[in-house]
Design brief:
The complex is a heterodimer of chains A (1091) and B (411). Helix content of chain A is 37%, strand content 19%. Chain A contains 38 helices and 41 strands. In chain A, strands 28, 29, 30, 31, 32, 33, 34, 35 and 36 form a nine-stranded mixed beta sheet that branches. Chain A has a seven-stranded antiparallel beta sheet with strand order 14-13-10-11-12-15-16, with helices on both faces. Classes of the chains: A alpha/beta (1091), B alpha/beta (411).
């Protein structure tokens, strides 16, 4: 080991965006633990508060700061680390390391780079150097050329033949790239690609569409020892980003000759690049020749390495961290077996499947085509001993409710359209395949249309055949057919629905026939060695691997029993990494309280599915059937549902009905907060005001309610996540359109209608034991009501609320917590109108998105406290004062982060429906600085005062906002921004003394507003949404064009006002950074208290 | 759904399970072993070292990519039977000529599918390798009686069953050039006079992959039956001697030791697997039977000459001892293993074998500390327990063939 490295700085990956999700928190926190095991002090930098890696318990020194060069330099100057480990923070970490190096900062402070040298990063990331390196290594790569200008790109296009792949340099998840089948598409992709590339380079490449896409995860130590952890095969052939592909591990259709050919190539590459740690190599393998190309090399941990770790049990990040410190592979113990070494290659005795989770169910207008640009927000993983079993469990993990493999969306589609959907990948291609199989398309034909290997198509055929067999057998099925259904992973519920019988009937039959799942361990070695693995999956097989607690009878006798925690499944808009953060903390708290903590989850990107975070991990769907079977095996005292988002909450009712004890919140309380009428009654009983409204089952009655309470109104279906299909409606005409357009999303649920107050929004997370509450802090939203709380910026402590309002908020929150006898966490949202009247608008009896944010800035260990309440202890004994906690010296601002560039056609304006994928936090001694940090961390450029002189602002404001807009736009003008507007707005601004230039609307001839955007006229766009539908159409196009050209678009005047405040804050000589440990935190040692 | 009728597996200790039968109808008895490789069922089935054994694949899905004739390691399937979790019905790959089931049928091999191979693997791991019977026709009682008739597998010398009957010669011209290229890069060797290196090899059950590794380096190999006297091999005036892999217990093969000794004294010699064990025995280093064998493509081996660890392909139930104890080192608490993994106290350089200081221990298994390689201190002779040719498995160790070629050139 390198003894000179005693202090290491780890760079995180920042906010969650499409292409860079929770996997880097998983890798980062695992690596931090691994480094600290070796006695190394860890300095952690990440702007994302919703991460385990930014916990004080994970690293020695934690900085939640904007991830830019000035802040990083300041942290380096303060901490003086011996080395930086840049390979754990995804593309962000790698890019920052590159930038730091180019600025000479590590050199200046004598800091070295661990794991991967700067040279290696360049050789893997810079297209030209990559090409040269591969040629040196004699590794085949597709014919490709680099272009640095539009003209150059066109010239290259001429000498190659279509289709061509366009890839911008140094981007994440393939942002801005695509496959061009013709000249027009080439022009489009070259234009956006050049704009989005970090180094103004694009690569134009021979297209290997239809080849098999295979990945290898490789490790290498400083002695040049190499292993491959795992290989993976994409079901979708080349052409679909691997993050958007269904992936199986290990590869299934490769013979040993092909497998070893690529394995040897992967080892040669990692050796050639001299990477010390982990590396991901992507290959295109010809489907009918022994010929391959190297497509990409990621010299760092990645989404694929997280998947490979979970698929095999081999902790890549943990081992990579130790290698970075100079350990050899054969000197690192295999954590799973406890008695073999990390220098081996895991042997799997099961199949692993990953299916992406796309946001198209929420973003209906977004383009669903899949290509080189990743669009999925998350993924699920499943494990079984049959392909069908793994596949169907993955669908269940995605919470897809099927009645048949033939789904309504595809049933009535014409053959012509079906062909199109088979040939052009979209998120629904698997269901198009099922439909085609139903229609009798042959496997060979489907192979030709989709490029998928025959094996996979045959497996889909087998699933359809299974459904037909089941239909034929009817409910008189025998034990043999039932066993086959279960071997193939068909859920009881799906079987019942295929048979059109009551959901519970197949389950009953199954229990009568004693067909029960077995649980097998993931042990890295296919049972060759005896392993203490606590990591399980279900399979209908002959026997279960025993539980550790049973093996170690007596040894853990100190334990008080088991508690099952339900995780939150795949990351999706509205249910993100925050819930995994909460789940992980609940596991830690349970263990500290002396319980055995068991978790069920299916998201491979997360910390909660790291096998040593819980006492037992079940990688299973979060469905009633799966969870119920696990409960039968584990026999926990009860189940905790409140940390796993809506996914877990939804399981509370069926589990409670079957006699399972739900710990913490009761089903009745959940119902009381979600059922409109009961909630209204409760608020009335407690004397708490709430906006008037009503519930209708008959959607046509919505207009009556709206007219009774008066417009504007907020409408939404009940029981939804992230405000899906939620709208502010200003008139009856729009209400009718809304109902017509969204009835599919209502799914037979009642429609809720509330009076909409455009006031200030306030939010609290309350810890409760049913009697006492602890409120860590009150958060004030920066944007007015009307924007989903997940998309608004928020500040703690509140900046504009008087004591009276805060008292009311605390009083109402306390009353509600007591009235529903909440044990654990509840989140309550309020709106404050112009008269300072406080209304409750929403109560969620579960952990919320803001828990990590508020925990971190207040230092209150919320989940630990919540766990006390859940397990029946009194908060009065916690050592924390009851009620609202005192406010500290710092101000923290939370800002949302969006992935709009990845989702073409999606409208970027903010409203009641959530659109953000992640969040960042800015901490400072004063509000404007915190705001500035949060905004710049969120990727909104906060200009310096001098820069403002050369900036241009495009302001297009809806009529109803014009008065409010005046002050904001005046502010920008005063800072030196040149203001552009369409004629009407410009006139209005000029009449109020603001010098504004006119631009043409789309209908007013050229150059019009979009031409101006394309020619980079503006550096900022402020655009508010109008209820005039025609104006809206144009506004939408403006917003979209701006986003695609990397111009920040602000759709709320409050956000614009905040930006103004941040800019006015001005430039500092020196960045101020805050180490999290300097925030006073309350101490709560559960174990020590002997509860 | 079972694609065919039922089959029964029964072990002498009473372990039973039922699944569907694959390959031929009938009854077969063999030593139950498991292999953890996730690819390469065809290579494994056709590896002569599996003679007398019933192979359990721990990876549950077999047959997916069919069977490509070029991958076969010998003319036939030498294993007595095969057990899989799920047999793929069709098997498709552009290189493939037939399905796994076709292959089993054409070779008259009986197998069992649709069972919990993890349960069986754990049983073998915990109770040791034992005889088992697969039958599509006998009742449980009948199967038990049939099994009782078979002697312990250790008693039999299986090598004559798989060795060639007549000597033959193969060189680069006998192999498809493209195929050799696909198996990895190889340096070309020739003698000063431009002639190819000549290897005389004992065929104890030689894998085609080994011959390919020699061919890829430009060597001509004269292959001899296991019973051939040393003089026959020397008569072709070889540049080196090769001792191949093969099935069974090396203790049953003392009849070859005298010849092996003579050859190793005379020429550069390289042994793989059984060949390694025989070289050890010829040098006075005994062999012993492992509780269960190492079979798979993921076993780490440390080369003490370089300090580097390599992933190897392995297939053996016997090993050469490391010291005078019956199992090398005292039995450690390692679950199911005779010895413990290599810890920080591991040797850092080749060291003389305690039983014969003229022989150096050069390679050790990282997982269980067992002997993986020997080299003769003053002679160009070395051997490894694992399979540098892969087939199936990693080809990280083909450098040993280069090492051997260089030794031959030097002598």
């Amino acid at each position: 080991m390198d003894e000179s490295v005693r202090k290491v700085m780890v760079i995180g990956s920042g906010p969650i965006v499409i292409g860079q999700a929770a996997e880097f928190d998983y890798a980062g926190s695992q690596a931090c633990r691994s480094l600290r095991e070796e006695g190394v002090e860890v300095v952690l930098v990440n702007s994302n508060p919703a991460t385990i890696m930014t916990d004080r318990e994970t690293a020695d020194r934690v900085y939640i700061e904007p991830m830019d060069i000035p802040h990083l330099e300041e942290i380096i100057a303060i901490e003086r680390p011996d080395a930086i480990l840049p390979t754990l923070g995804g593309q962000t970490g790698l890019n920052l390391a590159t930038e730091l190096w180019q600025c000479g900062i590590p050199q200046k402070y004598g800091v070295k780079l661990l794991g991967t040298s700067f040279e290696t990063i360049k050789r893997a990331e810079d297209r030209e150097q990559f090409k040269a390196t591969m040629q040196e290594l004699d590794m085949p790569i597709p014919e490709s050329y680099i272009a640095e200008s539009f003209e150059e790109a066109m010239a290259i296009g001429k000498k190659m033949s279509f289709p061509l792949i366009i890839r911008p340099g140094y981007t994440l998840g393939g942002t801005g790239g695509g496959i061009a089948f013709n000249q027009k598409e080439l022009i489009d992709y070259v234009t956006t690609g050049l704009l989005q590339s970090m180094n103004n380079q694009i690569l134009i490449e021979e297209c290997v569409i239809g080849w098999k896409e295979i990945e290898y995860e490789v490790m290498r130590d400083a002695d040049d020892n190499c292993i491959t952890v795992c290989n993976m095969e994409n079901l979708d052939p080349m052409g679909v980003h691997t993050g958007d592909s269904i992936v199986v591990a290990p590869s299934l259709t490769l013979s040993d000759v092909e497998y070893q050919l690529l394995r040897s190539a992967a080892l040669k590459i990692i050796r050639g690049l001299k990477i010390e740690g982990g590396c991901n190599v992507q290959f295109a393998l010809h489907p009918s020749e022994l010929k391959f190309y190297v497509i990409e090399v990621n010299p760092r941990v990645s989404r694929s390495s997280a998947l490979a770790s979970k698929a095999t049990g081999y902790p890549i990040a943990r081992v990579a961290a130790k290698i970075a410190l100079g350990k050899r592979l054969h000197e690192i113990v295999n954590h799973v077996t406890g008695q073999t070494m990390a220098s081996f290659e895991p042997a799997l005795d099961y199949v692993v499947l990953k299916i992406p989770k796309w946001p198209f169910d929420k973003f209906r207008e977004a383009d669903r085509h899949l290509g080189t640009q990743m669009k999925a927000t998350g993924e699920v993983m499943s494990i079984d001993r049959s392909f069908e079993g793994a596949f169907l469990k993955a669908l269940a993990s995605l919470e897809v409710k099927l009645r048949s493999f033939r789904t309504n969306r595809w049933k009535d589609i014409s053959d012509r359209d079906l062909h199109k959907f088979l040939a052009e990948p979209t998120d629904g291609r698997v269901f198009a395949l099922f439909e085609a199989i139903y229609r009798g398309y042959s496997a060979e034909y489907l192979h030709r249309l989709t490029g998928m290997s025959h094996y996979f198509i045959e497996k889909f055929e087998a699933m359809v055949k299974l459904e037909l067999d089941l239909r034929k057998a009817g409910s008189v099925m025998d034990s043999k057919l039932l066993a086959e259904l279960k071997r193939c992973g068909l859920s009881d519920e799906l079987a019942a629905r295929i048979l059109e019988v009551d959901d519970s009937q197949v389950a009953m039959l199954r229990h009568q026939l004693h067909t029960e799942p077995s649980y097998k361990a993931v042990d890295t070695c296919a049972a060759e060695f005896f392993a203490q693995s606590p990591y399980f999956y279900s399979s209908y097989a002959e026997e279960s691997d025993v539980l550790i607690s049973e093996r170690q009878k007596g040894q853990k006798s100190g334990k008080k029993g088991k508690v099952l925690v339900l995780g939150s499944g795949p990351i999706r808009i509205g249910q993100g990494i925050e819930f995994d953060y909460c789940s992980v903390h609940s596991l830690i708290a349970l263990q500290e309280l002396g319980y055995e903590a068991v978790i069920v989850n299916n998201n491979p990107e997360t910390v909660s599915t790291d096998f040593d975070v819980s006492d037992s991990l079940y990688f299973e769907p979060l469905s009633y059937e799966s969870v119920h079977e696990i409960i039968k095996r584990e026999k926990p005292l009860g189940v905790v549902c409140q940390f796993g988002g809506q996914t877990a909450i939804n399981l509370a009712a069926p589990l409670a009905q079957s006699g399972v004890r739900i710990l913490g919140i009761t089903q009745d309380a959940i119902d009381e907060t979600e059922d409109r009428e009961r909630f209204d009654a409760l608020m009335e009983r407690l004397g708490i005001p709430r906006p008037p409204g009503g519930t209708v089952m008959d959607y046509t009655k919505a207009i009556d309610v709206a007219e009774r309470i008066g417009y504007p109104i907020l409408v939404r279906p009940s029981y939804v996540l992230g405000g899906r299909a939620m709208r502010v409606v200003y008139n009856s005409e729009y209400l009718v359109t809304y109902i017509k357009d969204n009835s599919h999303a209502f799914m037979g649920q009642p429609l809720l209608i509330d009076k909409f107050f455009p006031g200030r929004e306030v939010e609290v997370d309350v810890v409760s034991d049913g009697v006492n509450v602890i409120i860590p802090g009150v958060m004030e939203h920066i944007e007015r009501a009307g924007i989903h709380s997940g998309d608004s910026m928020a500040v703690y402590p509140p900046q504009t609320l008087n004591q009276q309002i805060i008292d009311k908020v605390v009083d109402y929150a306390t009353k509600i917590a007591r009235a529903i006898h909440a044990q654990g966490l509840i989140n309550i949202q309020f709106v404050v109108d112009r008269e300072d009247e406080v209304y409750v608008i929403e109560v969620n009896p579960r952990a919320s998105r803001t828990v990590p944010f508020i925990s971190k800035i207040t230092g209150v260990p919320m989940i630990k406290l919540a766990m006390l309440g859940i397990m029946g202890d009194s908060l009065a004994n916690s050592g924390f004062p009851l009620g609202l906690q005192p406010v500290g010296d710092l101000v923290a601002v939370k800002a949302p982060v969006f992935s709009f560039q990845k989702l073409t056609d999606l409208d970027v304006h903010l409203g009641p429906e959530m659109k953000s994928t992640g969040e960042v936090m800015g901490i400072a001694g004063d509000y404007p600085t915190a705001l500035k940090k949060a905004m710049s961390a969120a990727g909104i450029r906060v200009q310096t005062l001098d820069q403002c002189q050369n900036m241009a602002l495009l302001a297009t404001v809806a009529d109803q906002d014009k008065d409010d807009a005046l002050e904001v736009i005046r502010g920008f003008a005063e800072l030196g921004f040149t203001v552009y507007s369409t004629a009407g707005t410009a006139e209005f601004l000029r009449s109020h003394g603001i010098e504004a230039r006119s631009v043409r609307k789309l209908s007013e001839g050229r150059p019009h507003i979009v031409d101006e955007i394309l020619s980079n006229r503006f550096q900022l766009v402020i655009n508010t949404v109008s209820d005039n539908q025609k104006a809206e159409l144009e506004a939408r196009r403006i917003r979209r064009e701006a986003v695609e050209h990397n111009i920040p678009v602000i759709t709320s005047l409050d956000t614009a006002g905040a930006l103004l405040m941040a800019i006015r804050r001005g430039n500092e000589q020196r960045m101020m950074v805050t180490e999290l440990g300097s925030i006073p935190a309350g101490e709560l040692h559960l174990a020590a208290r002997g509860v | 759904m079972s694609p065919s009728g039922e089959a029964l597996l029964l072990l002498a200790d009473g372990y039973t399970t039922r699944g569907y039968h694959i390959g031929c109808d009938g009854t077969t008895v063999g030593k139950l072993v498991f292999n953890t490789s996730m690819t390469g069922y065809h290579e494994i089935l056709t590896d002569p070292s599996y003679a007398g054994e019933i192979i359990t694949f721990t990876f549950p899905l077999e047959g997916i990519y069919g069977v490509c004739p070029a991958d076969a390691q010998s003319e036939k399937i030498h294993a007595r039977g095969v057990i899989v979790g799920e047999r793929s019905e069709s098997g498709f790959n552009w290189r493939s000529g037939m399905t796994l089931n076709d292959l089993l049928l054409s070779m008259s091999v009986t197998g069992l599918g649709g069972i919990d191979t993890r349960r069986l693997t754990k049983h073998i791991r915990d109770t040791g390798e034992a005889l088992g019977i697969i039958t599509t026709e006998l009742s449980e009682a009948e199967a038990q009686a049939e099994l009782a008739k078979h002697p312990d597998f250790g008693q039999q010398d299986l090598v004559p069953e798989v060795s060639c009957n007549e000597p033959y010669m193969v060189g680069p011209k006998n192999f498809d050039r493209a195929r050799l290229g696909q198996l990895g890069e190889a340096e070309q060797y020739e003698k000063a006079d431009g002639e190819p290196l000549v290897v005389a090899a004992y065929d104890y059950g030689i894998k085609r992959g080994i011959l390919e590794c020699f061919a890829a380096r430009g060597c001509t190999v004269h292959v001899f039956p296991c019973t051939a006297p040393a003089d026959d091999l020397l008569a072709v005036n070889p540049d080196g001697i090769f001792l191949s892999n093969g099935p069974g217990d090396p203790e049953r093969m003392d009849y070859v030791l005298e010849h092996v000794k003579r050859l190793a004294d005379a020429k550069p010699t390289f042994g793989i697997c059984l060949g390694h064990q025989l070289l050890a025995r010829a040098a006075g280093i005994p062999t012993y039977r492992l509780k269960f064998g190492n079979r798979g493509a993921n076993h780490p081996v440390i080369d003490l000459t370089t300090g580097r660890a390599h992933i190897s392909s392995q297939n053996h139930s016997y090993a050469a001892v490391l010291s005078d104890g019956p199992a090398g080192r005292p039995a450690a608490a390692a679950g199911g293993r005779e010895r413990a993994p290599l810890g920080p106290d591991r040797p850092t350089a080749p060291y003389p074998h305690p039983l014969n200081p003229d022989v150096l221990v050069t390679h050790l298994n990282v997982n269980d500390g067992s002997n993986e390689g020997l080299a003769w201190r003053d002679k160009p002779v070395f051997s490894v327990q694992y399979h540098p040719e892969g087939c199936p498995g990693p080809r990280d160790n083909v450098y040993l063939f280069d090492q051997f070629c260089r030794l031959m050139l030097k002598s």
